[in-house]
Protein backbone atom coordinates (compact mmCIF):
# COMPACT_ATOMS: atom_id res chain seq x y z
CA UNK A 1 0.00 0.00 0.00
CA UNK A 2 1.40 3.34 -1.03
CA UNK A 3 0.98 6.56 0.89
CA UNK A 4 -0.01 9.69 -0.96
CA UNK A 5 2.52 12.48 -0.79
CA UNK A 6 1.52 15.84 0.71
CA UNK A 7 1.67 17.30 -2.79
CA UNK A 8 -0.73 14.64 -4.10
CA UNK A 9 -3.10 15.18 -1.19
CA UNK A 10 -3.04 18.91 -1.82
CA UNK A 11 -3.80 18.33 -5.50
CA UNK A 12 -6.68 16.04 -4.54
CA UNK A 13 -8.12 18.64 -2.21
CA UNK A 14 -7.80 21.26 -4.90
CA UNK A 15 -10.08 19.22 -7.15
CA UNK A 16 -12.70 18.61 -4.48
CA UNK A 17 -15.65 20.92 -5.15
CA UNK A 18 -16.88 23.07 -2.30
CA UNK A 19 -20.31 24.61 -1.87
CA UNK A 20 -20.42 28.40 -2.00
CA UNK A 21 -23.46 30.55 -1.31
CA UNK A 22 -23.64 33.66 -3.46
CA UNK A 23 -25.86 36.33 -1.95
CA UNK A 24 -26.58 38.66 -4.87
CA UNK A 25 -28.45 41.95 -4.81
CA UNK A 26 -30.96 41.53 -7.64
CA UNK A 27 -33.07 44.19 -9.33
CA UNK A 28 -35.29 43.92 -12.39
CA UNK A 29 -36.89 47.29 -13.19
CA UNK A 30 -39.75 45.53 -15.01
CA UNK A 31 -41.01 43.72 -11.90
CA UNK A 32 -39.17 45.05 -8.82
CA UNK A 33 -39.85 48.22 -6.85
CA UNK A 34 -36.64 47.89 -4.86
CA UNK A 35 -33.48 45.75 -5.04
CA UNK A 36 -33.61 42.53 -3.03
CA UNK A 37 -31.16 39.82 -2.01
CA UNK A 38 -31.29 36.34 -3.50
CA UNK A 39 -29.03 33.41 -2.57
CA UNK A 40 -27.61 30.72 -4.84
CA UNK A 41 -25.63 27.61 -3.89
CA UNK A 42 -22.81 27.14 -6.37
CA UNK A 43 -20.23 24.31 -6.63
CA UNK A 44 -16.75 25.71 -7.04
CA UNK A 45 -13.03 25.16 -6.74
CA UNK A 46 -10.83 27.33 -4.48
CA UNK A 47 -8.94 28.43 -7.59
CA UNK A 48 -12.10 29.71 -9.29
CA UNK A 49 -12.56 33.41 -9.70
CA UNK A 50 -15.75 35.10 -8.59
CA UNK A 51 -16.58 35.73 -12.24
CA UNK A 52 -16.71 31.95 -12.80
CA UNK A 53 -19.33 31.66 -10.07
CA UNK A 54 -21.42 34.42 -11.63
CA UNK A 55 -21.30 32.59 -14.96
CA UNK A 56 -22.57 29.45 -13.21
CA UNK A 57 -25.60 31.33 -11.86
CA UNK A 58 -26.37 32.83 -15.27
CA UNK A 59 -25.73 29.66 -17.29
CA UNK A 60 -27.30 27.03 -15.02
CA UNK A 61 -29.64 28.75 -12.56
CA UNK A 62 -31.13 32.00 -13.87
CA UNK A 63 -30.49 33.24 -17.39
CA UNK A 64 -32.06 36.62 -16.58
CA UNK A 65 -29.19 37.49 -14.22
CA UNK A 66 -27.36 40.56 -15.61
CA UNK A 67 -23.77 41.70 -15.09
CA UNK A 68 -21.01 43.23 -17.19
CA UNK A 69 -17.90 41.34 -18.24
CA UNK A 70 -15.55 41.32 -21.18
CA UNK A 71 -11.93 40.17 -21.27
CA UNK A 72 -11.92 38.33 -17.89
CA UNK A 73 -8.19 39.09 -17.50
CA UNK A 74 -8.32 42.07 -15.14
CA UNK A 75 -7.51 44.74 -17.72
CA UNK A 76 -10.83 45.74 -19.32
CA UNK A 77 -12.49 47.02 -16.14
CA UNK A 78 -15.96 45.79 -17.13
CA UNK A 79 -16.81 43.56 -14.15
CA UNK A 80 -16.41 46.00 -11.27
CA UNK A 81 -18.78 45.23 -8.37
CA UNK A 82 -18.96 45.12 -4.61
CA UNK A 83 -17.67 41.76 -3.37
CA UNK A 84 -18.20 41.38 0.37
CA UNK A 85 -18.68 45.14 0.53
CA UNK A 86 -15.44 46.05 -1.26
CA UNK A 87 -15.13 47.33 -4.84
CA UNK A 88 -13.26 44.73 -6.86
CA UNK A 89 -13.03 43.16 -10.30
CA UNK A 90 -14.81 39.79 -10.25
CA UNK A 91 -12.28 38.33 -12.68
CA UNK A 92 -9.35 39.09 -10.34
CA UNK A 93 -10.74 37.82 -7.03
CA UNK A 94 -9.92 34.18 -6.27
CA UNK A 95 -12.43 32.19 -4.26
CA UNK A 96 -9.70 30.83 -1.97
CA UNK A 97 -9.06 34.39 -0.77
CA UNK A 98 -12.68 34.66 0.38
CA UNK A 99 -13.11 31.24 2.01
CA UNK A 100 -13.80 30.76 5.70
CA UNK A 101 -10.97 29.34 7.77
CA UNK A 102 -12.13 25.73 7.33
CA UNK A 103 -12.07 26.27 3.58
CA UNK A 104 -15.22 24.22 3.09
CA UNK A 105 -18.12 26.64 2.90
CA UNK A 106 -18.57 30.38 2.64
CA UNK A 107 -21.11 33.05 1.80
CA UNK A 108 -20.13 35.81 -0.59
CA UNK A 109 -22.21 38.96 -0.96
CA UNK A 110 -22.23 40.65 -4.36
CA UNK A 111 -23.82 43.99 -5.18
CA UNK A 112 -23.48 46.69 -7.86
CA UNK A 113 -21.00 49.51 -7.32
CA UNK A 114 -22.40 52.59 -5.56
CA UNK A 115 -23.02 56.08 -6.85
CA UNK A 116 -24.29 55.02 -10.27
CA UNK A 117 -27.89 54.12 -11.08
CA UNK A 118 -28.57 50.38 -11.19
CA UNK A 119 -30.21 49.45 -14.48
CA UNK A 120 -30.55 45.74 -13.73
CA UNK A 121 -28.91 43.48 -11.12
CA UNK A 122 -25.16 44.30 -11.18
CA UNK A 123 -25.47 46.35 -14.37
CA UNK A 124 -25.13 50.10 -13.67
CA UNK A 125 -25.44 53.22 -15.82
CA UNK A 126 -21.87 54.26 -16.62
CA UNK A 127 -22.83 57.35 -18.66
CA UNK A 128 -22.20 59.91 -15.85
CA UNK A 129 -18.82 58.31 -15.18
CA UNK A 130 -17.73 58.59 -18.81
CA UNK A 131 -19.14 62.11 -19.13
CA UNK A 132 -16.77 63.20 -16.36
CA UNK A 133 -13.94 61.33 -18.07
CA UNK A 134 -14.56 63.05 -21.40
CA UNK A 135 -14.87 66.46 -19.71
CA UNK A 136 -11.21 66.51 -18.66
CA UNK A 137 -10.04 66.09 -22.29
CA UNK A 138 -8.30 62.71 -21.98
CA UNK A 139 -6.12 63.03 -25.05
CA UNK A 140 -2.87 64.70 -26.05
CA UNK A 141 -3.24 68.43 -26.80
CA UNK A 142 -0.51 70.22 -28.75
CA UNK A 143 -0.24 73.62 -30.40
CA UNK A 144 1.96 75.07 -33.12
CA UNK A 145 3.36 73.33 -36.15
CA UNK A 146 3.55 69.58 -36.27
CA UNK A 147 7.07 68.34 -35.50
CA UNK A 148 9.13 66.78 -38.26
CA UNK A 149 9.98 63.83 -36.01
CA UNK A 150 8.38 62.07 -33.08
CA UNK A 151 8.11 63.92 -29.79
CA UNK A 152 11.02 62.60 -27.75
CA UNK A 153 10.47 62.00 -24.05
CA UNK A 154 13.05 61.02 -21.46
CA UNK A 155 12.51 58.09 -19.14
CA UNK A 156 12.29 60.51 -16.21
CA UNK A 157 9.55 62.47 -17.99
CA UNK A 158 7.68 59.24 -18.67
CA UNK A 159 8.04 58.11 -15.08
CA UNK A 160 6.40 61.34 -13.91
CA UNK A 161 2.96 60.12 -14.96
CA UNK A 162 3.55 56.38 -15.37
CA UNK A 163 1.32 55.36 -12.47
CA UNK A 164 -1.80 57.04 -13.82
CA UNK A 165 -1.45 55.43 -17.26
CA UNK A 166 -2.56 52.16 -15.63
CA UNK A 167 -6.19 53.25 -15.25
CA UNK A 168 -8.66 50.86 -16.94
CA UNK A 169 -11.78 52.99 -16.28
CA UNK A 170 -13.44 50.34 -14.12
CA UNK A 171 -14.98 53.01 -11.81
CA UNK A 172 -13.90 51.13 -8.66
CA UNK A 173 -12.21 54.26 -7.28
CA UNK A 174 -14.97 56.71 -8.19
CA UNK A 175 -17.78 54.52 -6.86
CA UNK A 176 -15.91 54.00 -3.58
CA UNK A 177 -15.79 57.76 -2.94
CA UNK A 178 -18.26 59.05 -0.30
CA UNK A 179 -18.32 62.48 -1.95
CA UNK A 180 -19.35 60.89 -5.24
CA UNK A 181 -22.12 58.87 -3.52
CA UNK A 182 -23.63 62.06 -2.13
CA UNK A 183 -22.98 64.32 -5.10
CA UNK A 184 -23.00 62.74 -8.54
CA UNK A 185 -21.83 65.99 -10.13
CA UNK A 186 -18.35 65.61 -8.59
CA UNK A 187 -15.81 64.67 -11.27
CA UNK A 188 -14.62 61.74 -9.18
CA UNK A 189 -11.19 60.15 -8.71
CA UNK A 190 -11.00 58.36 -12.07
CA UNK A 191 -11.51 61.56 -14.08
CA UNK A 192 -8.86 63.35 -12.02
CA UNK A 193 -6.45 60.43 -12.42
CA UNK A 194 -6.85 60.60 -16.19
CA UNK A 195 -6.39 64.38 -16.15
CA UNK A 196 -3.18 63.80 -14.16
CA UNK A 197 -1.95 61.42 -16.85
CA UNK A 198 -1.95 64.30 -19.39
CA UNK A 199 -1.28 67.29 -17.12
CA UNK A 200 2.14 65.88 -16.24
CA UNK A 201 2.98 64.58 -19.72
CA UNK A 202 5.89 66.65 -21.06
CA UNK A 203 4.58 66.31 -24.62
CA UNK A 204 1.21 67.88 -23.81
CA UNK A 205 0.29 71.59 -24.01
CA UNK A 206 -3.17 71.34 -22.44
CA UNK A 207 -2.27 71.24 -18.73
CA UNK A 208 -3.64 74.73 -18.06
CA UNK A 209 -6.95 73.90 -19.73
CA UNK A 210 -7.42 70.79 -17.64
CA UNK A 211 -6.41 72.53 -14.42
CA UNK A 212 -9.00 75.23 -15.13
CA UNK A 213 -11.64 72.52 -15.59
CA UNK A 214 -10.72 70.85 -12.30
CA UNK A 215 -10.44 74.17 -10.41
CA UNK A 216 -14.19 74.11 -9.97
CA UNK A 217 -16.76 73.63 -7.23
CA UNK A 218 -17.26 70.03 -8.40
CA UNK A 219 -13.61 69.53 -9.27
CA UNK A 220 -10.50 68.44 -7.45
CA UNK A 221 -11.25 70.45 -4.29
CA UNK A 222 -14.18 68.20 -3.42
CA UNK A 223 -11.74 65.41 -2.54
CA UNK A 224 -11.71 64.74 1.22
CA UNK A 225 -8.64 62.44 1.15
CA UNK A 226 -10.34 59.36 2.61
CA UNK A 227 -8.08 57.00 0.61
CA UNK A 228 -11.08 54.83 -0.34
CA UNK A 229 -10.15 55.31 -3.98
CA UNK A 230 -6.57 54.13 -3.53
CA UNK A 231 -7.70 51.07 -1.55
CA UNK A 232 -10.28 50.17 -4.20
CA UNK A 233 -8.07 50.45 -7.29
CA UNK A 234 -7.48 46.96 -8.76
CA UNK A 235 -4.40 48.21 -10.61
CA UNK A 236 -2.66 49.57 -7.50
CA UNK A 237 -2.66 53.20 -8.69
CA UNK A 238 -1.86 55.74 -5.98
CA UNK A 239 -5.08 57.62 -6.70
CA UNK A 240 -5.05 59.90 -3.66
CA UNK A 241 -1.43 60.88 -4.37
CA UNK A 242 -2.35 61.80 -7.96
CA UNK A 243 -5.23 63.96 -6.75
CA UNK A 244 -2.95 65.77 -4.31
CA UNK A 245 -0.42 66.42 -7.07
CA UNK A 246 -3.14 68.03 -9.17
CA UNK A 247 -4.12 70.19 -6.19
CA UNK A 248 -0.51 71.30 -5.74
CA UNK A 249 -0.24 72.12 -9.44
CA UNK A 250 -3.25 74.41 -9.02
CA UNK A 251 -1.95 76.01 -5.83
CA UNK A 252 1.58 76.69 -7.07
CA UNK A 253 0.83 77.02 -10.80
CA UNK A 254 3.61 74.57 -11.49
CA UNK A 255 3.41 71.20 -13.25
From TrEMBL:
Family assignment from sequence similarity: Belongs to the succinate dehydrogenase/fumarate reductase iron-sulfur protein family.
Record InterPro entries: 2Fe-2S_ferredoxin-like_sf, 4Fe4S_Fe-S-bd, 4Fe4S_Fe_S_CS, Beta-grasp_dom_sf, Helical_ferredxn, SDH/FRD_Iron-Sulfur, Succ_DH/fum_Rdtase_Fe-S, Succ_DH/fum_Rdtase_N
Xref: PANTHER family: SUCCINATE DEHYDROGENASE [UBIQUINONE] IRON-SULFUR SUBUNIT, MITOCHONDRIAL, SUCCINATE DEHYDROGENASE IRON-SULFUR PROTEIN
Organism per entry: Amycolatopsis ultiminotia
Enzyme nomenclature, EC number: 1.3.5.1
Cofactor(s) listed: [2Fe-2S] cluster; [3Fe-4S] cluster; [4Fe-4S] cluster
Domain 4Fe-4S ferredoxin-type stretches: 157-179
Protein's UniProt name: succinate dehydrogenase
Source superkingdom: Bacteria
UniProt keyword annotation of Lyase present: no
Keywords: 2Fe-2S, 3Fe-4S, 4Fe-4S, Iron, Iron-sulfur, Metal-binding, Oxidoreductase, Tricarboxylic acid cycle
Iron-sulfur in keyword set: yes
Amino acid sequence: MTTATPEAEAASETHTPIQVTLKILRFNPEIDQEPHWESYDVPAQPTDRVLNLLFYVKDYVDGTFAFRRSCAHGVCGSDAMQINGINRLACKVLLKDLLEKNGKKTEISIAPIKGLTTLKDLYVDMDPFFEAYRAIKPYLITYGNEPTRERIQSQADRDRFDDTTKCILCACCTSSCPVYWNDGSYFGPAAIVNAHRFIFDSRDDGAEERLDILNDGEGVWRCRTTFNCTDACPRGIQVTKAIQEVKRALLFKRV
